[in-house]
Fold:
Amino acid sequence: MNSPKALSNALAQARASRGEFDSYANLVAQIAPAIHEVQDSPYTLSNDRYAALRHVLHDVGGQPDLSVEYTEKVEEDWEMNTYVTCECLGWRGAWNSEMRRRAENDLGATLYYGLPYYARWITVAAKVLVSKGLITTDELAAKIDAVRARMIEERS
Structure:
């Protein structure tokens, strides 16, 4: 079994320098459609470009990153309500965790990294329910308006 010191050393070696991280981030950014680089053939991909193309949003294992300080966070009521709602949807057969993960990947990097963890869950739950025809966008909008009105009323 690895000692805590050995694990700490391994993690320190795995962290990328700022230059390595920026280089990787720039390579991934070059693949974005907004600044698409025309290529002659898919067979001319470098190993670095191939690794960047294989990158999926939720799979960050082994990718270069900067160190982040770990802090405990107490979940807010809406986060726990989201978790319970999503679990109930699973129990009722409306969706499963694989549907959630796939829908989170389909959000795109801006929404995926821009939304808090449980905000991604509730966003993709709504998308899955609408795409499966279990609710309509009008029903969803009406429910959101009702909850918003209730929240404003509770604050007054």
Notes: The chain has a mean pLDDT of 78.
